[in-house]
């Protein structure tokens, strides 16, 4: 059974919060450690259930892992891989598990991986991963829920992605690092996490140029070495606390952030009359009590557009904003799963195809609600911070996948959240 949160509104949140390393950067970097037999140390790693699941997956393949959660240092040594088949026990727990297919093919020449799990937020096919690997010479077979891939030696190729998929860009980039010759990928995703992965690979001896643009060139090398790498701060966690400040009309100072990664979030907060200021050590987000939070329209897009992972948080914010907001989801087709639960709290929301029309109400009311996925759960948690009455939030294991002790950190800012096992 999943734990529950009992959330009692307690006024404006104020104080400092240190942002963790990015989950969506850590997971591909951990997959990339399979490319070398030498030890790699990843720093700034958050203590998350998704990280635990990825470590379990690596260990099931024969790698050794050691995690000092207090320091955020995770060491992986994949010197003695003893199988090319990934266990469903681990793959079923997180979507990012499929990222190991590129490194496994490049290192061992074959891989057998169950179709992955993760949040049920819509279709996230792995076709683009497979098309790219096939272009590099891999033979791909679908059998009984498994993807079987084999390639005695991957060869560089010119690859055009039909969609700028983050996962496919990462998978192909990792595989190409040990391929023979040059790989040129076009229409790549440009997210900061891709740049971080390229930085890790280059530090390990890869030759990757253009990460963060729509064209990436990878010159294959014979072997990679061990390396120590600190992952970037989590821009979605930062955005979560930014919206928490806006929702509770508070004043929160965020440290360990990269302001450039948060430009679309900052722009939308300013549009709705929330102040965002850069400081010497981070970002300060605060509300001017003389200004009311007003409605705005949002359209989710791949980076550098407004992140789909922030959509649920802004829906909670717009639920009590003055006026009518329209949020259009273009990335995932099933990412309005929090709407029914917000309506239980008194929100006025109508779904029209891939858009949600939100009529702001003066106040939401506490209710019994359930998290359906990671970001929807965090969005409901934020909504409860500014509702009238107590909210009981179930399904918080989803939230634990992407946040390290979120309730404790919000409590240090003045929230009143109890975890009930």
The number of strands is 23
The residue ranges in which pLDDT falls below 50 over 5 or more consecutive positions are: 118-124
Largest sheet: 4 strands, mixed
Helix content: 25-40%
Strand order of the largest sheet: 21-22-1-23
Shape: elongated
Q: Rounded to an integer, what's the Rg over CA atoms?
A: 22 Å
Structural category: alpha+beta
Approximately what portion of the residues adopt beta-strand conformation? 15-25%
Average residue pLDDT: 94
Distance between the termini: 8 Å
Instruction: Count up the helices.
Output: 14
Write a structural description.
This protein is an alpha+beta fold and 421 residues long. The N and C termini lie close together (8 Å). The strands form 6 sheets. The protein has a 4-stranded mixed β-sheet. A 4-stranded mixed β-sheet has the order 2-14-16-15. The radius of gyration is 22 Å and the shape is elongated. Helix content is 30%, strand content 24%. Helix 10 links the parallel strand 17 and strand 18 (324-328).
Give the SSE layout.
Blueprint (H helix, E strand, L loop, with lengths): L3 E5 L5 E5 L4 H10 L7 E4 L5 H12 L3 E5 L4 E5 L10 H4 L9 H8 L1 E5 L12 H9 L3 E5 L2 E5 L7 E3 L5 H12 L4 E5 L5 H12 L3 E3 L5 E5 L8 E3 L4 H13 L3 E5 L7 H9 L2 E5 L3 E6 L10 E2 L11 H8 L5 E5 L10 H6 L3 E5 L2 E5 L8 E3 L3 H12 L5 E4 L2 H4 L5 H7 L3 E5 L1
Helix pairs in contact: 1-2, 1-7, 4-6, 5-6, 6-7, 8-10, 8-12, 10-12
């Amino acid at each position: 059974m999943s734990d529950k949160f009992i959330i009692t509104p307690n006024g404006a949140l104020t104080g400092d919060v240190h942002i963790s390393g990015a989950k969506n950067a850590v997971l591909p970097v951990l997959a990339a450690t399979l490319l070398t037999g030498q030890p790699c140390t990843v720093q700034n790693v958050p203590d998350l259930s998704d990280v635990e699941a990825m470590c379990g997956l690596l260990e099931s393949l024969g790698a050794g892992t050691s995690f000092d959660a207090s320091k955020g240092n995770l060491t992986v040594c994949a010197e003695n891989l003893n199988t090319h088949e990934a266990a469903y026990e681990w793959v079923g727990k997180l979507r990012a598990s499929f990222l190991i297919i590129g490194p496994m093919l490049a290192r061992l020449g074959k891989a057998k991986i169950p179709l992955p799990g993760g949040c049920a937020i819509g279709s996230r096919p792995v076709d683009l991963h497979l098309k790219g690997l096939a272009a590099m010479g891999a033979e791909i077979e679908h059998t009984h829920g498994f993807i079987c891939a084999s390639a005695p030696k991957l060869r560089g190729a010119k690859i055009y992605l039909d969609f700028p998929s983050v996962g496919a860009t990462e998978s192909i980039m990792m595989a190409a690092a040990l391929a023979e010759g040059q790989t040129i990928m076009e229409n790549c995703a440009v997210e900061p996490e891709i740049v971080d992965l390229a930085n890790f690979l280059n530090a390990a001896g890869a030759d990757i140029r253009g990460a963060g643009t729509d064209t990436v060139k990878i010159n294959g090398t014979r072997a990679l070495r061990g390396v120590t790498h600190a992952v970037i701060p989590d821009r979605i966690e930062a955005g979560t606390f930014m919206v928490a400040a806006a929702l509770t009309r508070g004043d929160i100072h965020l440290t360990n952030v990269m302001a450039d990664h948060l430009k679309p979030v900052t722009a939308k907060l300013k549009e709705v009359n929330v102040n965002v200021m850069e400081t010497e050590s981070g970002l300060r987000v605060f509300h001017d009590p003389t200004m009311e939070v007003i409605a705005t329209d949002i359209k989710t897009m791949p980076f550098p557009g407004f992140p789909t992972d922030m959509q649920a948080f802004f829906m909670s914010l717009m639920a009590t904003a003055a006026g009518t907001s329209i949020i259009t989801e273009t990335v995932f087709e099933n990412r309005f799963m929090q709407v029914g639960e917000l309506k239980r709290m008194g929100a006025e929301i109508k779904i029209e195809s891939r858009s949600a029309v939100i009529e702001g109400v003066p106040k939401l009311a506490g209710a019994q609600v359930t998290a359906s996925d990671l970001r929807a759960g965090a969005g409901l948690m934020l909504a409860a911070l500014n509702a009238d009455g107590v909210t009981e939030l179930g399904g918080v294991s989803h939230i634990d996948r992407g946040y390290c002790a979120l309730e404790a950190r919000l409590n240090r800012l003045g929230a009143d959240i109890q975890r009930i096992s």
